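Regression test case RT-17, inverse folding.

Input:
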């Protein structure tokens, strides 16, 4: 951003400060948050870590949200000088990364500028931000939400997606996105259902994109629509919801410019009572890459979001070595989970009770029947929802048991059996076919006194051999120790050791130490050490993070 523009923005904020301070206690409110991540990196040839020319890297941003009576507004200043490792290489400079104004009352909510929105489960439209992934696909344009009657919610959106942030400016996708959504809570709308125990909501969505035909050798549809409906029901301790989406022909780089329609189906069932929770989910996806620019790849300008049907893991070896990324071109996935608590003061539960958790998830390739590839329609195969082949993409079987032995000591034991098809959901260049791993984790917590506590994790990952040879990088072990002084200080050290690598010189210790300080809504963390290369995933969306060796300082603040 040019200096004179930045100076003007800062001057306006400073000039308004006295008014904001006065109005904060009246009808005017200001909230927000800020974050900065600084890295100073060293070269480490042993792990393949490079030192950038600048040596130091910085990501920072600040959100400011304001409201006065029914009016609202907000903005986000972002700065990448340059971006930290793993972020998209198009992120650079300092400037406004998001801004909006709006008005809201009981009937209407209108926003002009940058906004995030989701229709249903998100399989037809979801714009959101995840700074850990470097992901931000908000829409820039107009959003209108109407509540004409109790139980009726109508939405309309129109705009362009954020693609990147270059030279301190927002860069938009080429395509235009338009959409409408309606949701009815039938118990509020229909009098016969008003006092019924069965609670029912229905919804319908339509989203289309426009992008000019940019090919001479193909006839590409310039307007592509997607549409579908959903149903949500709750009865006493039971819940059931489902959604089905159809996307029209959308030839793109992702699907090799075929003219197949796409579909996505999702069903969730749940049962919950005191001490017991059961969830069952099923998903069917085929050719559902839906972007506002048909020529983009990786995580750029997705209009929709396909939820991952596998448990979100947080343990180091489980979450970072063999994560699974949702396959938008096709997968049929299932998940089942049971959470059970053995009651306190029973023979098995003991004084504090015992919590048991079992989870299973899998994803398979859809069963696709090929059509003559020379067909002039370029529809190359047929498939049906939930028609599953025997080609496995992913399988995760895990169990955990948590027990509190005393007021001061608790223990959680975990087992994970994970199988990943590296030819499809590729996470490493050192393996082919199925990678089968067994992971055990013991997590212990000990409270020394009212302020001081210890936590430890012992993790081991064991990879099955592939045709008699060590698969991928072999076995790993991780040890984590944390010491906390409540409410302000915390210290931790982690050693991730690739002791089973088939190449002895690559049996490396990745040691990383950190400490932090917390005061009210301010948090400062300082860390130093090695971090291995790999995928970082959240909810089936992943980004690659290169190996690094150096110092990281992070600062967060909310107000």
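Golden output:
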């Amino acid at each position: 951003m040019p200096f004179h523009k930045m100076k003007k923005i800062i001057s306006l904020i400073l000039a308004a400060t006295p008014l904001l301070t006065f109005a904060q206690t009246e009808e005017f409110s200001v909230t927000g948050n800020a974050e900065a991540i600084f890295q100073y990196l060293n070269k480490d040839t042993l792990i393949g870590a490079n030192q950038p020319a600048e040596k130091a890297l910085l990501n920072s941003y600040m959100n400011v949200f304001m409201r006065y009576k029914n009016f609202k507004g907000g903005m986000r200043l972002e700065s990448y000088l340059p971006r930290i490792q793993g972020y998209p290489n198009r992120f650079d400079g300092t400037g406004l990364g998001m801004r909006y104004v709006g008005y809201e009352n009981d009937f209407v909510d209108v926003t002009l500028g940058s906004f995030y929105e989701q229709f249903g489960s998100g399989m037809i439209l979801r714009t959101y931000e995840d700074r850990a992934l470097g992901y931000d696909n908000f829409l820039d344009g107009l959003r209108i939400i109407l509540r004409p009657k109790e139980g009726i919610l109508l939405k309309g959106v129109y705009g362009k997606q954020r693609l990147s942030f270059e030279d301190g400016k927002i860069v938009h996708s080429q395509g235009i996105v338009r959409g409408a959504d309606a949701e009815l809570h039938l118990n509020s709308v229909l009098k016969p259902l008003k006092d019924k125990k069965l609670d029912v909501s229905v919804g319908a969505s339509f989203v289309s994109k426009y992008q000019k035909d940019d090919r001479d050798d193909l006839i590409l549809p310039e307007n592509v629509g997607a549409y579908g409906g959903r149903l949500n029901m709750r009865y006493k301790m039971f819940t059931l919801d489902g959604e089905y989406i159809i996307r029209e022909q959308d030839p793109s780089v992702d699907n090799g410019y075929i003219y197949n329609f796409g579909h996505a189906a999702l069903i969730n069932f749940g049962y919950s009572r005191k001490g017991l929770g059961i969830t069952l989910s099923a998903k069917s996806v085929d050719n559902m890459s839906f972007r506002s620019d048909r020529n983009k790849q990786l995580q750029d300008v997705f209009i929709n979001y396909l939820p991952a049907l596998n448990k979100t893991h947080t343990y180091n070896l489980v979450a970072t070595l063999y994560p699974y990324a949702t396959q938008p071109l096709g997968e049929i996935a299932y998940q089942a989970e049971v959470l059970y608590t053995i009651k306190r003061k029973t023979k098995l539960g003991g004084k504090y009770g015992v919590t048991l958790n079992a989870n299973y998830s899998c994803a398979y390739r859809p069963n696709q029947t090929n059509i003559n590839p020379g067909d002039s329609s370029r529809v190359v195969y047929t498939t049906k929802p939930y028609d599953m082949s025997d080609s496995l993409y992913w399988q995760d079987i895990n169990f955990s048991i948590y027990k509190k032995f005393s007021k001061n000591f608790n223990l959680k034991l975990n087992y994970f059996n994970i199988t990943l098809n590296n030819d499809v959901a590729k996470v490493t260049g050192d393996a082919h076919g199925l990678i089968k791993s067994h992971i055990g984790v013991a997590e212990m917590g000990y409270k020394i006194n009212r302020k001081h506590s210890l936590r430890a994790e012992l993790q081991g990952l064991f990879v099955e051999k592939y045709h008699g040879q060590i698969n991928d990088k072999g076995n790993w072990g991780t040890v984590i120790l944390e010491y906390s002084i409540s409410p302000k200080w915390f210290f931790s050290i982690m050693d991730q050791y690739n002791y089973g690598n088939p190449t002895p010189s690559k049996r490396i210790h990745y040691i990383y130490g950190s400490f932090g300080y917390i005061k009210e809504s301010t948090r400062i963390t300082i860390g130093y050490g090695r971090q291995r290369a790999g995928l970082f995933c959240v909810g089936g969306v992943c980004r690659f993070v290169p190996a690094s060796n150096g110092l990281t300082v992070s600062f967060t603040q909310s107000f």
